[in-house]
Design goal:
Structural class: alpha+beta
Oligomer: single chain
Shape: elongated
Helix content: 25-40%
CATH architecture of the largest domain: Alpha-Beta Barrel
Distance between the termini: 41 Å
Number of helices: 10
Radius of gyration: 23 Å
CATH class of the largest domain: Alpha Beta
CATH topology of the largest domain: TIM Barrel
Largest sheet: 7 strands, antiparallel
Length: about 450
């Protein structure tokens, strides 16, 4: 694929992405994070595309039932041979990227998922010395049993690089695995690269692998976009500074962990990041590859997830994807409705020329409404659960409004006239409850 056709920051507003030379808003959901491993991948991607989705997460993980690992087994011992790439694993990955490319779906890859390297998954992992023919505990420095949460950083796997513990026995196989991945992925222009899943390891680890990917890509003439995903829920924490303040290493930021927040705090935190990026002169996409929230999970409710999806987009984020069950809504019926509605919303409001504008809304309760503005020419106001607010407008004459019923994925009618008084218009949702978006414009 030509360099200008690949996924990259949008030339006219680098808070967003462009793909095949056109701006794209990345939205989606999926049943698993390591979607290349699921048996019905083609039909799942078809479903996503059919409702308007174009964005999936792809951890290079193998810990779920039915998954395969990235290495073949030795025929004599039955143990893994880290010298031999896993035929089925890499075939699944290659097919997934091809299927996604055919449907214009962007895949955000995560090279290393720390949950594969601790507790029960570590007992099955080929890198565990007891599971391969290539090294022992003594030779590798890797222990056979890790019962602590990976956030306790007991695994030496993430300290193998030269600037850390320089464990060449392990790092040689890590490099070979990444090289094999890149041999497949660099041929596709629909890939974003994230180094880890919610890491708290040394920032030197992520910096090294980001530079490694970028250098390998440059050698093939391909441009790539990289980031790191930190474990901290507070976006102003010191971990996030390693991506926010280092454009020489990372070309975009992933702020998915903000989806542990609720209500206006969930809105405010990305606005702080946005202003930090603007102030530094470095404007780049802010991605949210996993929206937590499901009644059966631990990180919020169904309602939290739905609100987060819309706050992300009106708040200026470049992507928003529902996390897999049970921690998120995946690609169930609720997610499908919101994705469809977001695409309907885009037919009347251009997010690529808009900016968050909550200051224009008054007479609102703390979580009643959120807004964005297209340079004062059009406005969008999202209501998480019905409501009645005032909106400050630049042009007080000949205004009209149209309402989108998000749950039904349909407009309630055409644009209708709305009166302004004192530079403000009053907005009341068609029903007292429900998820609604109002689009306000000057009458034609």
């Amino acid at each position: 694929m030509l360099s200008e056709e690949r996924i990259q920051p949008y030339s006219e507003n680098t808070f967003y992405w462009q793909y095949k030379r056109k701006p794209v808003l990345l939205i989606g959901g999926s049943v698993e994070d390591n979607v290349f491993q699921i048996p019905d991948i083609e039909s799942h991607l078809d479903l996503l595309a059919s409702v308007g989705g174009n964005y999936v997460r792809c951890t290079m993980s193998s810990r779920d039932e039915g998954n395969v690992w990235p290495f073949e087994r030795d025929s004599a011992s039955g143990l893994y041979n880290l010298e031999k790439p896993g035929t089925e694993y890499w075939s699944r990955f290659d097919r997934f990227l091809q299927l996604a490319s055919e449907r214009n779906i962007i895949a955000q890859i995560e090279l290393w998922d720390r949950f594969d390297f601790a507790r029960d998954p570590w007992q099955l992992n080929p890198y565990n010395p007891k599971n391969n023919i290539n090294y022992t505990v003594e030779e590798s420095g890797l222990v056979e049993d890790i019962r602590s949460h990976p956030g306790q950083k007991e695994s030496a796997f993430f300290r193998s690089l030269p600037m850390l513990e320089d464990n060449q026995v392990v790092s040689s196989y890590q490099h070979a695995q990444v090289d094999r991945m890149l041999a497949i992925s660099l041929a596709h222009g629909n890939v974003l690269y994230c180094i880890d899943n919610e890491t708290n390891e040394s920032p030197k680890w992520g910096t090294y692998w980001s530079d490694y990917i970028r250098n390998r890509a440059a050698g093939t003439g391909a441009g790539v976009e990289t980031t790191e995903m930190w474990d901290q829920h507070d976006l102003e924490g010191d971990q996030h500074a390693h991506t926010l303040d280092h454009p020489e290493t990372y070309s975009f930021v992933d702020i998915s962990q903000n989806n542990h927040q609720v209500g206006k705090v969930h809105w405010d935190n990305p606005q702080t990041v946005r202003q930090r990026l603007i102030g530094s002169g470095r404007v780049c996409p802010m991605n949210s590859v996993k929206i937590y929230g499901a009644n059966m999970g631990r990180y919020g409710t169904h309602r939290d997830a739905q609100e987060r999806f819309w706050r992300n987009i009106l708040g200026g984020l470049a992507s928003s994807r529902f996390h897999r069950p049970p921690s998120g809504l995946g690609l169930g019926l609720i997610s499908q409705a919101h994705i469809r509605s977001m695409r309907l919303f885009q037919t009347e409001f251009c997010v690529f020329t808009a900016a968050p504008a909550l200051a224009l809304v008054s007479n609102r309760s703390v979580n009643e409404a959120y807004s964005a503005s297209e340079n004062g020419n059009r406005y969008a106001v999202f209501f998480p659960d019905g409501g009645d607010v005032d909106l400050e407008v630049s042009h007080a004459e000949d205004l009209e409004v149209r309402w989108l019923d998000i749950r039904a994925s349909e407009w309630t009618g055409e644009f209708e006239s709305i009166e302004a008084a004192g530079g403000r218009v009053g907005l009341s949702t068609p029903q007292e409850e429900g998820y609604w978006v109002a689009v306000i414009r000057r009458a034609r």
